[in-house]
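Progress narrative, work stream C.
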Amino acid sequence: MTAIDRVIVDEIAEIMGEEFPDLVRTYLDSAPLLIHQLENAAHQDGIDVLIGPAHSLKASSNDLGALQLAEVAQAIEHDARTGNASARDHVPLLQLRFDEAHAELVKIITP
């Protein structure tokens, strides 16, 4: 399994046309901020602070076919919503999954 689902990417690229690279760049700029928020939130007392950034990261990652990253974000969101402290356990995997997705997305938008 690759970090990016090409079927999803090809579909959104077709829909977005010339604006697709800008969409990818926006994602590549915003996802690290969400990951940083999650890393910081993982060190706070309440796990409910993980829900918002995890949900946003899950949604944007799914939209661009970064399904492995989306799965980790979904696990964080789910565990945080159910009050399961193991939500924090998934956070360290986010950066690795993002790095993998980043590399593939850059190749896709680089002529």
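Work stream C, second folded protein:
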Amino acid sequence: MKLLFDQNLSPGLVEALSDIYPNSEHVSNFNLDRSSDREIREFACKHEFTIVTKDSDFEDLDTLLGFPPKVIWIRRGNCSVQEVEQLLRERAASVLSHLEDPQLGTLVLV
């Protein structure tokens, strides 16, 4: 289960969640932190990542272009890194189920 954390999320989430989401990365690790959403999307698709973001643009691209890549859209306003980590831990079963279902593109976590 490879997650690619968008620039609007902390790079620290990669290490903090490595026990349940191994092989995950942050866009900054690939110098994509200033790239367009389409470029990040293409990279994620090519390298079989699921994008984790707080940005609605990826869900819009999913609707427009289809998937892969899958998207996990975190719809919480201003929240701490710890809150995002806790959300992804608490919803790990939902995330896994979503990733295994070929009919689903975007998972919204609130």
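The longest helix spans residues 37-46. No further action is required on this item.
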